[in-house]
Each structure stands twice: as C-alpha cells, then as structure tokens.
Amino acid sequence: MDPFAPYQWLADALTYRVFGLAPGSRLALAVDFFLYDVPKVLTLLAVVIFAVAIIRSFFPPERTRAMLSHTRLYGGNIAAALLGIVTPFCSCSAVPLFIGFVESGVPLGVTFSFLVASPMINEVAVILLAGLFGWRIAAIYIVSGLLIAIVSGIIIGKLGLESWVEEYVYKLRVGQAAEIAEQTWRERLVYARDHVGEIVGKVWPYVVVGIGLGAVMHGYIPDDFLARYAGVGNPFAVPIAVIVGVPLYSNAAGVIPLVSVLTEKGVSMGTSLAFMMAVVGLSLPEAIILRKVLKPKLIAVYFGVNAVGIMAIGYLFNAILR
After folding, report:
1. pLDDT at residue 245 above 50?
2. How many helices and strands, by DSSP H and E, does the chain display?
3. pLDDT digits (tens, 9 = 90+) for 90-106
4. Of 4, 36, 92, 188, which has the maximum CB count within 10 A?
5. pLDDT tens for each residue of 69-91
C-alpha cells in the first residue's frame, strides 16, 4: 500500500473538485503535481532528517576531525568519503571544517574526499531517490558519489597542492576540542526534533520552488522537448547537464523533483543524475565560501576534477541503465 495515497487523494480533490480544473489540462497536471509533491517531500524530509540527526549526534565535528586526522593514504580517502555520508554538513560549514582538518594534520586529499562526499551523498537525496525511482537507483547514486569523492581526493592528494591553500590557514592554532559529552537518548531525541524544525525551516522554500519548477515542466513542457536536446541520442547531454547544473543553487530536496520530471520527459537516468550531482556538489556559493581558505587555482582544480568525475559517472550509467 502506498503510504502517500492520501496525499494523492487530497491533491486530486483540491485540483478537480475545489479548484474545478479540467482533467488532463496543462494547468491541472501542474497543480496536481505540485499539491501532491510538496507535502510528500516535506514529510519525507522530516522523517529522514530526524533519523539522520540521531546518527549525527554520535559524530560531532570534533570527533569527525579526530577520526580523520589519523587516516592516511587511500584508506583515509575511503574512510573520509564513508564518513561524509553520515556527517552531512552544509556548505556554510566548509570553511571551519576545512581549517579544522588542516590544523589537525588531515592530508589535503583526504580532506577533499570528505568535502566532496558530505554534501553530494546527501541522506535526503538518497531517501527521495529511493522513493521516486527505487532503491537500485539510490544505491547507484551512493556508489557513484563515493567513487567521485574517493578518486577526486586521491588525485588532489597526488598533485601536492598544499601551497594552493591560503597560508594563514596553516598558521591557525585552535585549542584542543573539548571532551565530547555523552548524551542521553532523551537529549538525542530532543536534538533531533529541534534539528528537524531548524533544517525544514530553512529548506522548505527550496522544496517549494523546486517542486514548482518541476510542476511547470510536468504540465507545460512538451513531452519531446527535453528529450530532443538532452535525450539518449545526444552525445553531449551529460556535459550540458553538468554545465547547466553548476550555477544553480539548490539542495537535494529542491532538485530531485526536477530530476523526476526530467526522466519523465525522456532524459536518461545517467544524465539526470549528473545534473543533480552538479547542482548539489558543485554550487557557486560553496566556491565563494571556500575562497576564504583556498586559492583560486585549487578551487578550479576541485571543481574540474569533480565535474569530470560526474560526467564519467553520467556516461557510465547511461550505458548500464538503458
């Protein structure tokens, strides 16, 4: 039984009975899509964020830095990428985390594996992808995100680009992190509840805007429009999707409704995943924030390596998911 069936019933009732829109019309399709997806996505967000907040309470930033400071070589990149899944930090946390990693002696490549995985393999994206496309696609998203994070971190580490970090970062001396107090389960539950309110309060406008754009695309864009320019027959569809995705600023909750519509309109799954990864993992606001600690050349390398990895994943999964 579909747990969201009541949402569909309510959306249909509002669209066709209350608003009196003609069934099958473009406006009705767009409104029905919007009224169904908004409460569905917000409900999923609340449930997932609550669960992840419980997990996150065991991995505060201080403990994360302590764990990564003892990792080396490829094992460090793998551990950092895996840790990024369960410790998802927003882009505004990139600067203090980066400074903490460098000061703690975490290798630069390991640090970048974490920074790539943390926003890209977003717990919200995984759950929403599973809900929309099934767990097979969600698993592909996790594996491909991990590959990009690990490989890009290894490449950046091998290039020896420590001199492209702003010098003041290495001169910073932060005090030893305070002892991490063990929380009771009551405290963890209260933290998770408050975290849901904080995060949902911040991201709901992106959810509404993202779903609104998806609704417009769903109702008004002709079925063959996107398939014509970014469909399976276009060899440049993946790089076009990545280039278009970079300047956009959205979280996973806002972009996944667009991905759903893109696939409905004939865009292949690999191209759609590449678009989503570019939006989530290569945002311009993140580059602006990282400029405080990274020189422009290193930011360019960071974006370039990730973009190439995302395009490779897009082409790979376009081939396997035909």
Report:
1. yes
2. 16, 0
3. 554 555 566 667 666 67
4. 36
5. 655 567 888 888 887 776 655 55
Instruction: Tell which residue, 32, 206, 177, 153, has the closest CA to residue 100.
Output: 177
Neighbours of 101 (CB within 10 A): 24
Helix (H, G, I), strand (E, B) or coil at 221: coil
The per-residue DSSP string of 144-186 comes to: HHHHHHHHHHHHHHHHT-GGGB-HHHHH--PPPPPP-PPPPHH
Give me the torsion for CA of 254, 258, 261, 267, rounded to 10°. Answer: -150
Mean pLDDT of the chain: 77
DSSP 91: G
The domain ranges of the chain are: 23-173+183-320
CB neighbourhood size of 297 (10 A): 11
Sequence letter at residue 268:
S
Nearest to 56, CA basis, from 149, 129, 111, 122:
122
